[in-house]
Design brief:
Blueprint lengths: L7 E2 L5 E5 L2 E4 H24 L5 H26 L1 H6 L14 H19 L3 H26 L13 E2 L5 H5 L8 H19 L9 H18 L7 E2 L2 E2 H20 L6
Parallel strand pairs: 1-4
Antiparallel strand pairs: 2-3, 5-6
Helix pairs in contact: 1-2, 1-5, 2-4, 4-5, 5-7, 5-8, 7-8, 8-9
Length: about 270
């Protein structure tokens, strides 16, 4: 099918600035911004909820969560693309080239946080509720990094909002001169909307521990399931898109827990 080439052409550069051999890239900068913003919001929620963690412990928790999330997110992506990485093993640690799977990041981050909170004898689900809004906001920052990087991109489209990415980007190399769905921006908007709902609506009343985190899982998974229809670089499980399979499982699991434990009711 011939695609129209009337989409908006964007001029992006993944490197914000260079200082000698040091490059500061938008992709990495967004992680730094996400951590700074999340540290402020999480500390605010910890104080509001009366969770027995001092600021230093909150920062340690975030360090555990970020490191665990990045490691497993990368491992998840590498496993699903082993054909490429087995041939180019030096690319495995090159996260600045893209390739962090969000579902792997959630698994790694949650596991690391659970281990840390268990050591501190802090209720995991209460803390998970405090972290959930910041987590989805951090994912929104990450998607802006994907946009500047030209990865996590969509397939060709004739819609007027299709974007033509620079040919040196990952999206541009796959679809040179062709407008594609800006799926990273789709997900950015969805993630910001979820953050607003969790932060401004759900915090108005105290819910049972685990409610806000379960809603985060359900809402993000539903949004990701939708956006995945337009992705061109999906990880696959046989004929199925891995993110849609995982999202469906997470929606069913979190939804059944909410119903069984009546988490939507206030305390």
């Amino acid at each position: 099918m011939p695609w129209k080439t009337s989409g908006t052409e964007v001029s992006l550069h993944p490197v914000l600035f260079e200082f000698g051999p040091i490059q500061v890239r938008f992709y990495g900068l967004m992680y730094v911004v996400a951590i700074i913003v999340a540290s402020y919001l999480i500390r605010s929620e910890v104080r509001r909820k009366g969770i027995p963690l001092v600021d230093e412990e909150v920062m340690n928790l975030m360090l555990w969560t970020v490191v665990g999330g990045i490691l497993v997110a990368r491992l998840y992506y590498v496993v699903f693309n082993w054909g490429y990485y087995s041939a180019y093993p030096r690319e495995i640690p090159a996260v600045w080239h893209g390739g962090l799977a969000i579902h792997g990041g959630i698994l790694g981050g949650v596991s690391a946080a659970w281990l840390y909170l268990r050591r501190k004898k802090v209720a995991f689900w209460r803390m998970a509720d405090a972290v959930a809004p910041s987590l989805i906001l951090g994912q929104a920052f990450g998607r802006f990094g994907n946009f500047m990087n030209g990865d996590a991109h969509g397939r060709p489209t004739s819609m007027p909002w299709g974007i033509v990415f620079p040919q040196e980007s990952i999206a541009g190399r796959e679809f040179p001169g062709i407008p594609i769905h800006p799926t990273m921006l789709y997900e950015l908007v969805i993630n910001v909307a979820i953050f607003c709902y969790l932060w401004f609506v759900m915090r108005k009343r105290e819910h049972k521990d685990g409610c806000i985190f379960a809603l985060y899982i359900i809402l993000y998974s539903a949004g990701r399931f939708f956006v995945e229809h337009f992705r061109a670089d999906s990880l696959m499980i046989g004929p199925f898109r891995a993110a849609q399979v995982v999202s469906a499982v997470l929606i069913l699991t979190a939804g059944s827990i909410m119903v069984r434990k009546r988490l939507w009711t206030t305390v």
